[in-house]
Design brief:
The chain has 274 residues and is an alpha/beta fold. 43% of the residues lie in helices and 20% in strands. The strands form two sheets. The protein has a seven-stranded mixed sheet. The chain starts with 6 loop residues before the first helix and ends in a 5-residue tail after the last strand.
Length: 274
C-alpha cells in the first residue's frame, strides 16, 4: 500500500502532465492522480511516489510518459454522441454533394475508442451510398491504448446500444467471445479511417489538411484558455474555407478570439471567403 502523495510530488506531476499534453489537473485532482499513478506503480513494482518521479525521469524512449498520459486521460465516449451534430453532418454532406464535391476530408481529433469516427463513417456512407466520392477520416488521440481498441473495432452489446438495428445489420459483423455478443465494424468503414497518435498540445500538427469538417469534442474541457486558443487557431488553419468544427455540447468559443462563425450551439464554421 502506498502512502499519500505529497503535495510537492503532485505539483511535479501536474506540471509535467500540463507541459506534455496540455491537460490541466486542478489542485482538487490530487486523489484522482494518486489513484491512477498508484495503479501504474503497482503494475511496475514501484513502492513510493518519489521513486516513480525518478523512474519517469529515466525515460529513454518516452514510453513511461506515454503510460502516465494513458492513465490520466478520461476516455468516455459513445456511438452517435450528441446526435444533433450527426443529423447536421448528414445535411452538410448532402449540401457538399449538391456542390459537386468528389473528395471529403474529416478529422476526429480526440477519437478515444473509435465510436466517434465510426459514427462519422456511418453517416458518410449512409448519404454517399455507391457514389464515387473519396472520403477519408483521420482519427487521432494522445492515448495509445484507446487507439488500439479503436483499431480492433470490436464493441459489446452495451456499447452498440445507440446504433439502430438496421445500421447494426448493415455495418457490423457479430460473433461470440466468452459468451458475450461482439459487434465488429465492417472493413468498408474501417478502410475510411486512419488512426494515429497525435498530441493536441503539439504545434504545428504533422498534417497539412485542409479538412471539410473537424470533430473536436469533449477534449477542450481538459485544457486552459491558452491551450484552447492555440488548438483552435491550428484547427482554423487546417479547415477549408466554409469547413465546420463540431465541439462538445458544453464547449463553445465564447471568450476566445477565434475567427470562426457561429452555426448552432457547439458548431462553428470557417468563413467561405478566407
Ligand atoms: C472524453 S474523451 C472524448 C471522446 C470523443 N471526442 C467524444 O466526444 O465522445 C476525451 C479524449 O481526449 C483525449 N485527449 C486528452 N488530451 C489530449 C491531447 N493533449 N491530445 C490528444 N488527445 C487528447 C483523451 O485521451 C480522450 O480519449
Amino acid at each position: 500500500m502506498h502512502k499519500d502523495m505529497k503535495n510537492s510530488t503532485f505539483k511535479i506531476l501536474q506540471k509535467l502532465i500540463y507541459d506534455q499534453s496540455g491537460i490541466c489537473l486542478g489542485d482538487s485532482k490530487l486523489t484522482l492522480l494518486q489513484t491512477r499513478v498508484g495503479r501504474l506503480m503497482r503494475q511496475r513494482g514501484i513502492i513510493d511516489y518519489q521513486k516513480y518521479v525518478d523512474y519517469l525521469k529515466n525515460d529513454s524512449d518516452g514510453t513511461r510518459l506515454n503510460d502516465l498520459l494513458d492513465a490520466i486521460s478520461t476516455n468516455v465516449t459513445s456511438f452517435f454522441r450528441e446526435f444533433e451534430q450527426f443529423k447536421l453532418l448528414d445535411k452538410i454532406i448532402y449540401k457538399w454533394l449538391d456542390k459537386g464535391y468528389k473528395k471529403i476530408r474529416a478529422w476526429s481529433c480526440a477519437c478515444s475508442t473509435g465510436e466517434e469516427p465510426y459514427s462519422m463513417a456511418i453517416t458518410f456512407s449512409e448519404v454517399i451510398k455507391s457514389k464515387n466520392i473519396d472520403v477519408k477520416i483521420l482519427a487521432t488521440d494522445i492515448n495509445t491504448q484507446v487507439l488500439e481498441t479503436a483499431r480492433k473495432r470490436e464493441y459489446t452489446e452495451e456499447r452498440i446500444e445507440p446504433v439502430s438495428r438496421p445500421l447494426r445489420i448493415k455495418y457490423f459483423k457479430t460473433s461470440k467471445k466468452d459468451e458475450e455478443k461482439i459487434y465488429q465494424v465492417n472493413m468498408g468503414l474501417r478502410k475510411m479511417i486512419t488512426f494515429k497518435r497525435i498530441n493536441l498540445s503539439t504545434n504545428p500538427f504533422p498534417m497539412k489538411g485542409p479538412f471539410d469538417v473537424i470533430f473536436c469534442r469533449n477534449v477542450m474541457i481538459y485544457f486552459d484558455k491558452k491551450m484552447r486558443t492555440q488548438l483552435l487557431m491550428q484547427i482554423h488553419h487546417l479547415l477549408k474555407p466554409g469547413g465546420y468544427i463540431m465541439l462538445g455540447h458544453s464547449e463553445s468559443l465564447t471568450g476566445l478570439n477565434i475567427p470562426l462563425e457561429y452555426v448552432q450551439p457547439s458548431v462553428y464554421r470557417k468563413k467561405e471567403d478566407e
